[in-house]
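Work Package 4 report. The design task specified in the project plan requires that, given a folded chain encoded as structure tokens, an amino acid be chosen for each position. We show below one input record used in the internal validation round.
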């Protein structure tokens, strides 16, 4: 216990700190005792103590009127680490250490329905989906209604200026269908042309740069999905109407949406100037949680889509405004690029594990990363190198296995995740063959953690992203797993005139190296992080769950963790999402070994940072550090790195259809049943 006097007492503070080469003249801590990156805020005399231990490697977040300090490491505690959460804290302490993720003392139970269900990050979007189900629409009809509504109520994460990926489970045929709604780079672009831009100085395109803009694929993906899989019982006007009403008549901004919104506010101003006012209040202030917001320009765009279909977006005035804004900023997108855009129908890829089969969209999406990781674990279990039945949830042994499997999966994905139209030599089925998976799994048997020294690969550039994932099931037993995004917050932050949306920045995941598998080429699709998934019975293809998680690199990692929560440990839909997760990220303090290509993927640095969510045992964290993992405990607002998932599970019993739904506690959303 350390008493700083006055109104603030520090009680067994667990500031787990990345201390590799940093030694305070007084305090020297053995590495295995250390965690890192907690934000702590102090009032009164505690500031004086705080100032003695400055560490400004990463920014903090303002959360309290009592004052804040931009230092993360303040007090170190020696071995053994005491339990921070066991101490009773005063009201002021609770307030000082509170942010958007723990202000609300709420809990969620799994939700059930014997008809349809909608799970998304925004309850208003759920209401749009349920309305369509009530009108007789199926899960695809409702999913498109949800997608459109999310473009209104969570614009930092998604929009008509972005892309979509869709998986559909047909209950009648037990078939899984896929749609890749990814747009392409401008046909006229090239690496040489892009490198002429004054802001492009490195091996990749900056997120906030006109050359990161690719053709938006979302609207085409919506309409193509409806044409192929929709019920035909509801019109496009009925499906889009809830989104039009929300945009025209206003909605109240939710907490986490406001947080993401505010983070991007300055970028919107810098990139779009006067057009940015479409996403601010009338007085020019930020959109805060609880405030009313309107987007009448977007309502106008939706009406054009209702009356003109895809042509209302990809031809005519909207397309002209998109191209004009891109060209104004020096980009190469032309009207033909939009007019010729088409969605791509794909055969989903899958892997069976413990009697269940996980389905993913094939490359250029990163779903294969999740399949690789599960495949390595499966082969180790088959060869009796591990016993899955003896693994305890979030134990040292379990997390070490998943961490190492996912690291290897990310390494290997660099050979396979690309636009297959440009790389016909990539054989995805061979990549998922038992022989190859078993051979690669041998790398996981070494006694030390996997590093770049073990793998002869230079990862391609990639960025993480903000996204929305949602899923819908219907009373026929069908399921739709759907992701829609603009990539980073508001994408490129480039806003065309008159229509209330921002253009995505997905092109930032192209490499500006001709040797890279994801090198920029005209008309090429970029590396995509968004990945919806479905889980079925491995033999019958009966739906087991429709589930996924948004969040950049975390997506395949969350797929593996949530899949095992459901299948190996028997968690219900809500428990599977609530369980603390880990996330692999590049280590900012570790030297890049990518020959100057500037990759920022989880395995792009010599050591990979393992972020553990609060709730995972402190002892487990310490033991992982002893094994050699670079461990970092994450709490509060920083938990956004673990993404926001949704899950609807098929719990049909006694011949009666039944669904169990959950929505991630890290988001604003909910699972809502149809009655």
């Amino acid at each position: 216990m350390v008493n700083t006097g006055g109104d603030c007492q520090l009680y067994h503070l667990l500031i787990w700190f990345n201390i590799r080469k940093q030694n305070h003249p007084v305090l020297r801590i053995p590495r295995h005792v250390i965690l890192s990156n907690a934000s702590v805020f102090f009032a009164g005399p505690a500031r004086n103590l705080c100032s003695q231990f400055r560490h400004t490697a990463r920014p903090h977040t303002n959360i309290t009127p009592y004052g804040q300090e931009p230092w993360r490491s303040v007090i170190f505690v020696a071995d053994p680490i005491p339990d921070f959460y066991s101490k009773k804290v005063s009201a002021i302490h609770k307030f000082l250490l509170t942010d958007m993720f723990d202000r609300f003392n709420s809990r969620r139970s799994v939700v059930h329905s014997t008809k349809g269900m909608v799970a998304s990050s925004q309850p208003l979007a759920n209401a749009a989906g349920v309305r369509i189900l009530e009108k007789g629409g199926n899960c695809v009809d409702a999913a498109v209604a949800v997608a459109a509504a999310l473009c209104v109520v969570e614009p930092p994460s998604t929009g008509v200026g972005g892309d979509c990926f869709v998986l559909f489970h047909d209950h009648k045929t037990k078939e899984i269908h896929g749609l890749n709604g990814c747009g392409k780079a401008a046909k006229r672009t090239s690496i040489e042309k892009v490198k002429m831009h004054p802001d492009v100085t490195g091996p990749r395109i900056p997120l906030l740069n006109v050359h990161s803009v690719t053709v938006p694929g979302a609207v085409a993906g919506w309409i193509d999905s409806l044409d192929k899989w929709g019920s035909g019982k509801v019109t496009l006007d009925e499906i889009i109407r809830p989104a039009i009403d929300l945009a025209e008549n206003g909605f109240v901004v939710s907490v986490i949406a406001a947080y993401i919104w505010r983070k991007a506010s300055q970028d919107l101003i810098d990139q779009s100037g006067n057009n940015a006012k479409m996403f601010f209040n009338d007085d020019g202030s930020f959109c805060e949680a609880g405030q009313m917001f309107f987007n009448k320009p977007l309502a106008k765009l939706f009406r054009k889509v209702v009356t003109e279909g895809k042509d209302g977006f990809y031809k005519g005035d909207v397309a002209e405004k998109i191209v004009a804004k891109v060209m104004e900023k020096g980009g190469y997108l032309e009207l033909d690029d939009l007019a010729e855009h088409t969605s791509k129908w794909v055969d989903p890829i899958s892997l069976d594990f413990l009697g269940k089969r996980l389905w993913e969209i094939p490359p250029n999406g990163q779903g294969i990363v999740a399949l690789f990781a599960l495949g390595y674990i499966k082969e180790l279990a088959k060869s009796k190198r591990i016993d899955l039945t003896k693994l305890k949830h979030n134990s040292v042994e379990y997390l070490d296995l998943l961490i190492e499997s996912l690291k290897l999966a990310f390494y290997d994905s660099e050979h396979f995740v690309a636009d297959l139209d440009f790389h016909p030599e990539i054989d995805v089925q061979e990549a998922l063959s038992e022989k190859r998976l078993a051979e690669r799994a041998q790398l996981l048997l070494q006694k030390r953690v996997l590093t770049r020294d073990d793998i002869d690969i230079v990862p391609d550039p990639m960025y993480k992203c903000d996204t929305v994932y949602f899923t819908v099931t219907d009373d026929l037993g069908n399921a739709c797993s759907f992701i829609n995004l603009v990539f980073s917050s508001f994408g490129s932050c480039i806003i065309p005139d008159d229509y209330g949306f921002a253009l995505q920045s997905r092109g930032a995941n192209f490499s500006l190296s001709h040797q890279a598998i994801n090198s920029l080429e005209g008309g090429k699709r970029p590396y995509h992080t968004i990945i919806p998934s479905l889980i079925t019975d491995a033999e019958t293809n009966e739906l087991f769950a429709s589930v996924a998680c948004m969040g950049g690199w975390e997506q395949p990692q969350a797929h593996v963790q949530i899949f095992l929560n459901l299948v190996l440990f028997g968690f219900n839909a809500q428990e599977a999402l609530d369980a603390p997760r880990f996330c692999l990220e590049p280590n900012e303090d570790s030297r890049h070994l990518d020959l100057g290509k500037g990759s920022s993927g989880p395995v792009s640095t010599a050591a990979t940072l393992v972020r553990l969510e609060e709730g995972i045992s402190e002892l487990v964290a310490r033991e992982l550090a002893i094994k050699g993992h670079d461990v970092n405990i994450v709490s509060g607002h920083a938990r956004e790195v673990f993404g926001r998932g949704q899950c609807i599970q098929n719990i049909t019993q006694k011949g009666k259809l039944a669904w169990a739904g959950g929505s991630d506690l890290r988001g604003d959303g909910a699972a809502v049943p149809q009655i």
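Confidence is low (pLDDT under 50) at residues 1-98, 458-463, 594-599. Validation will be extended to a larger panel in the next phase.
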